[in-house]
Amino acid sequence: MKKAINILRTELFASIIVAVVIVVLYETETILPGELSEAKNAEFLLTSLMELLTICLIPLSLRLFKFNKIHQTLIATREQGLKKLGSLRMMMLCLPMVINTILYYLFMNVAFGYMAIIGLICLPFIYPSEGRCISETSEK
User: Fold this and answer.
1) What 8-state DSSP symbol labels residue 138?
2) Beta carbons of 36 and 43 less than 8 angstroms apart
3) Angle at CA of residue 14, ends 138 and 111, nearest 5°
4) Helix (H), strand (E) at residue 72
5) Per-residue pLDDT reduced to its tens digit, 47-71
6) Helix (H) and strand (E) counts for the chain?
7) pLDDT for 104
8) What is the DSSP secondary-structure string of 32-59?
9) Which DSSP symbol is given to 29?
10) What span, in angstroms and rounded, lies between the C-alpha atoms of 80 and 15?
């Protein structure tokens, strides 16, 4: 169980670090922000897509382990299931957060920034503490 918890924590903190590095690179103007600010069609399409993904993936990731089929899989496979399904849940929040961070700086559209912040705020709700992991892989 400890190995699965460490993997999940590594994924969580690595995603946060990647997002912070992106922010630092753009804020220090090592990479110039707003490179795609003139591409309004692409901005509209990506904003619509990321809003849809963010709005759908956040509740799904927060409730993922509550679905009966998934909970039964977690109980049956314990550590292996926790690694696989926990990584899936982590990436459902972390990937949109990092992508929204990049898109914010490419388009300088605050909608992407807000979605990245919302993703960051949701991460503590799935933090892989030892108690949470044990309770999610045991019978109710």
Assistant:
1) S
2) yes
3) 100
4) helix 68-77
5) 999 999 999 999 999 999 999 999 9
6) 6, 0
7) 96
8) -S-TTTT-HHHHHHHHHHHHHHHHHHHH
9) T
10) 22
